[in-house]
Write a structure and sequence with these properties.
Layout (H helix, E strand, L loop, with lengths): L15 H18 L13 E6 L5 H12 L3 E4 L13 H10 L4 E6 L4 H8 L4 E6 L5 H15 L6 E5 L6 H12 L3 E5 L15 E3 L2 H5 L4 E4 L15 H8 L3 H4 L7 E3 L12 H4 L6 H19 L13
Parallel strand pairs: 1-2, 1-3, 3-4, 5-6, 5-8, 6-7, 8-9
Helix pairs in contact: 1-11, 2-11, 5-6, 5-11
The structure holds phosphoric acid mono(formamide)ester.
Phosphoric acid mono(formamide)ester binds next to helix 2.
Length: 315
């Protein structure tokens, strides 16, 4: 199937076939990353700019690693020492970057819709690396890639997403991806952070942790995002943890083979206890590793790479 998209903005707009195509190319790149020579020549001569105007560890480093493994040149924008601190707008910043003749922009921004906006005013591909509370498409793709590695097909699998769903772009991207892949998604947390209207997205909503976790094959924890909350959505962190924090006793409600996921950064002792985050059921660091291959696939396809002839360095 030919790839027709120039940008990756949301998983809401991606079809199941497109997500599966990204996953199958990510699997090829993952194998290439396990060889002695990890670089492939797919984006030789191209330049990718990481325009991160919100803090990031995993996503920024994984995009940088992905572009380097594809043999592209990478420039990571230093927001703290840039002219954005003098009031330069996103539009002017992005247009000046494009004027430097770069080939692709990866954008993280606190404003929902900012990647869509750039995609309309620039002539180069724009990849959404997380926009406000809207979407984090590559996170949804790497999360579902990791789930498939452990569970095979996600059709009929029960996935519980626990925590601050209201402000979570990770939750939204996973909801769109998992629903198209046929999983049963149940959102759980306090009603202030998991409002009933999420059922309009075709998922279940629960405020009862025990029934939500019962027999789930995946539990995905979400961080409490203080930076996006304008008022308090629960009395205190201690009370949140006592009601919804994942500990050993509560993890026993899960399917015995369930995997534990978290997009990071983790608030240890708040949404998850350390012995679970670091335990044998945790795939949190696998998610990070898979983020490289998945982002390689996205950069490759959006730069016009052929899905049929993937330069994986094997010839
Ligand atoms: N998962 C994620 O987006 O982490 P960072 O904010 O560190 O990129």
């Amino acid at each position: 199937m030919p790839w027709t998209r120039r940008h990756l903005l949301t998983l809401e707009e991606l079809s199941l076939a497109e997500m599966e195509q990204i996953h199958s190319i990510a699997a090829v790149f993952k194998r290439a990353l396990q060889r002695g020579v990890k670089k492939v020549p797919a984006l030789r001569g191209r330049t990718v700019v990481n325009l991160f105007l919100e803090p990031s560890t995993r996503t920024r480093l994984a995009f940088e690693m992905a572009a380097k493994r594809l043999s592209a040149d990478v420039i990571s924008f230093d927001a703290a020492h840039s002219s954005t601190t003098k009031g330069e707008t996103l539009r002017d910043t992005a247009q000046n970057i494009q004027a430097l003749n770069v080939d692709m922009i990866v954008l993280r921004h606190a404003a929902s819709g900012s990647p869509l906006y750039l995609s309309k005013i620039l002539n180069i591909p724009v990849i959404n690396a997380g926009d406000g509370a809207h979407e984090h498409p590559t996170q949804g793709l790497l999360d579902t890639f990791t789930m498939k590695e452990h569970l095979g097909s996600l059709r009929g699998r029960k996935v519980a997403i626990l925590g601050d769903v209201l402000f979570s772009r990770v939750a939204r991207s996973n909801i769109y991806a998992l629903s198209k892949m046929g999983a049963t998604v149940i959102l759980v947390g306090p009603s202030t952070l998991v409002p009933h209207w999420f059922t309009e997205l075709g998922v279940e909503v629960s405020h009862d942790l025990k029934s939500a976790l019962a027999d789930a094959e995946v539990v995905m924890l979400l961080r409490i995002q203080h930076e996006r909350q304008v008022s308090s959505h629960f009395p205190s962190l201690g009370e949140y943890t006592s009601m919804f924090g994942l500990n050993k006793a509560r993890a026993a409600w899960l399917n015995p083979k369930a995997i534990i996921m978290h997009p990071g950064p983790i608030n240890r002792g708040v949404e998850i206890d350390s012995d679970l985050a670091d335990g044998p059921r945790s795939v949190i660091l696998e998610q990070v590793t898979n983020g490289i291959a998945v982002r390689m696939a996205v950069l490759y396809l959006c730069s016009g790479g052929s899905p049929e002839r993937i330069p994986d360095g094997s010839d």
